[in-house]
UniProtKB/TrEMBL annotation:
It comes from the Bacteria. This is IS21 family transposase. GO terms for biological process: DNA integration. SUPFAM superfamilies: Ribonuclease H-like. Residues 128-304 form the Integrase catalytic domain. NCBIfam families: transpos_IS21. It comes from Lamprobacter modestohalophilus.
Length: 421
């Protein structure tokens, strides 16, 4: 009732509904309704004391009910409450009432009824505490549209954020895409930024990291598993539908989007990332964090940095894996390019391992083909020995193949071809 008392004071002082709305005390239409009620009860007369909260609640509480929708919902009260306790959503309840009970009210009426009768209970959570160097949390967030200097077009970007759970120091990078190769590269850049590796990396169930989310045994992308093995960290995927377990990094993404991205102009992706790194070191890292009451960068330098795992002497190979079926032309397709394999493998499923410059194909654990990575869409890399003899002869079209084809046509055709050769 405090809000109403403040508005009544302003009305007594002569403020209009527009002025009250401009002061953000109450919307104009709501203020107009309150003014009518106040006039009916004499609340605007300066010589009379303002009503206490109980009196206001008795009058305004009655005025704020919705008799129309409530009267429509009320006959279904017990049914709706039973469905709600069974975990059925409001939209499903509304659809069932319309379909099976001739209900003509709106979904909003159902929602207001549920809010008034079955307020959603607060779900208790436990704050997660971490030792220095124990863990980092990772997430993607939507970034701004930035000029692609290669095409001259504005493109959507994403922001990758890795936050160390103890110090809250972070690494962030704006990227063009959320694919596996980018995900792995961002991890490498983050570990090099921190000059160390946390014991575990807590992630959401992004498809570039997790193939199949599961509470106890998620299926991890093979490429990400190799990255974790090479750098020596444990992948810790959040259970499905429990993103609150990854709150630090999501708060970091939100802070970055509120404090860094607005009111800045970026000439290119490289320019944006240079400014982002500068901002982390100059501003984000030196602010007093709301939870730790410490400066993230100072806490990182003084405590956490020394307790991170060492970077490997030789950076691990970051490769993308894909399971592919061999086509009838003895090629597999990967990222719009084609690579040959021995023709005896037609129709079989192989593993393809792609780095930035090499593609390798495996039958189970046996290497069956190696190619230079093709980056142009539609490009083909074909090894002659992979082709069956007849297909190879057709591709080469050597004299023996031509003579054989001519003989199949007839002796005169063969004689003509012999003279040509």
């Amino acid at each position: 009732m405090y809000e109403y008392r403040q508005v009544l004071v302003r009305m007594r002082q002569g403020d209009s509904d527009r002025q009250i709305a401009a002061a953000r005390l109450m919307g104009r239409s709501k203020a107009a309704k309150l003014r009518r009620v106040a006039s009916e009860h004499g609340w605007l007369e300066a010589e009379r004391p303002l009503p206490d909260d109980t009196a206001l609640a008795e009058v305004l509480g009655q005025r704020e009910t919705h008799p129309g929708p409530s009267s429509q919902v009320e006959p279904h009260r017990e049914r709706i409450l039973a469905w709600t306790r069974a975990g059925i959503t409001g939209t499903t309840i509304h659809q069932a009432l319309v379909r099976e009970h001739g209900f003509s009210g709106s979904y909003s009426a159902i929602r207001r009824f549920l809010q008034a009768n079955e307020p959603a209970p607060l779900k208790a959570t436990v704050r997660l505490d971490f030792a220095p160097g124990e863990a980092a949390q990772v997430d993607f967030g939507a970034g701004p549209r930035i000029l692609d200097t290669d095409t001259g077009e504005l493109r959507k970007t994403w922001v990758f954020v890795m936050t160390l759970c103890f110090s809250r120091h972070q690494y962030a990078e704006l990227i063009w895409r959320q694919d596996v190769a980018t995900w792995l590269a961002c991890h490498r850049h983050a570990f090099e930024w921190f000059n160390g590796v946390p014991k575990r990396v807590i992630i959401d169930n992004a498809k570039c990291a997790i193939i199949l989310a599961h509470r106890r045994d998620p299926e991890v992308q093979r490429a990400y598993g190799e990255c974790a093995e090479g750098y020596g960290f444990k992948i810790d995927a959040c259970p499905p539908r429990e993103p609150q377990l990854k709150g630090r990094v999501e708060a970091g993404v939100k802070y970055l989007k509120q404090a860094f991205l607005p009111l800045r102009e970026f000439r290119s992706l490289a320019d944006a990332n240079a400014k982002l790194r500068q901002w982390i070191l100059a501003e984000a890292g030196n602010r007093i964090h709301g939870t730790t009451r410490e400066q993230p960068l100072a806490l990182f330098e003084s405590v956490e940095k020394a307790l991170l795992g060492r970077l490997p002497d030789v950076p691990p190979e970051l490769a993308v894996w894909a399971k592919l079926k061999v086509h009838r032309d003895a090629h597999v397709q990967f990222e719009k390019a084609y690579y040959s394999v021995p023709f005896r493998l037609l129709g079989q499923t192989l593993w393809l391992k792609a780095t930035s410059d090499v593609v390798r194909l495996y039958q189970e654990h046996v290497l069956v083909a190696t190619h230079v990575r093709q980056l142009r869409p539609g490009a083909r890399s074909t090894v002659a020995d992979h082709m069956p003899p007849n297909a190879l002869a057709f591709a080469m079209r050597d004299p023996q193949w031509c003579l054989k084809q001519a003989k199949a046509v007839g002796p005169q055709c063969r004689a003509l071809i012999e003279r040509l050769f």
